[in-house]
């Protein structure tokens, strides 16, 4: 964390060019964002950034910075991630519009639509569903039904209810077709690509 996050532009242009020349086309796509000061652009919208990271063979640590300095501490919560990295941005007040799902989708579409890594957005969806209605019956009628005097099955009444559910939605669905041979690209992939760049 110290060597990768603690030093701006640690890798340098010469290391980037060296790795670029030694890699194939797919690996070159994965190099994007690993060099230069891209990570630090997050301070344009956040006044505090926390990077929580867990390696299989190590404890979980938190790198935290308020742009002028940084700290690294062992995570007191323990291994909550199991494995991987979580980046938390504490947004500046003037950047709250970046919390809007439509704003985030537009940014991903504009700047990250074709990267090889999936980007998911925690999204709400409202659906109208039919739910059964519990009818209150008088005690006498209930007793009659229980005794078997009312044999015919009543049609259950339902009402329409709006329910909100939350789930992860993949927002960069189109992959870079120019990285593949034209014979490997299906016609529907061309259609999807064309639609994505003309939105």
Automatic annotation (TrEMBL):
SUPFAM superfamilies: ATPase domain of HSP90 chaperone/DNA topoisomerase II/histidine kinase (SSF55874). Keywords: ATP-binding, Chaperone, Nucleotide-binding. Residues 151-162 have a biased composition (Basic and acidic residues). It comes from the Eukaryota. GO terms for molecular function: ATP binding; ATP hydrolysis activity; ATP-dependent protein folding chaperone; unfolded protein binding. Transmembrane segments: none annotated. The keyword Chaperone applies. Residues 130-162 are annotated as: Disordered. Pfam families: HSP90 (PF00183). InterPro entries: HATPase_C_sf, Hsp90_fam, Hsp90_N. Belongs to the heat shock protein 90 family. This is Uncharacterized protein. It comes from Anisakis simplex.
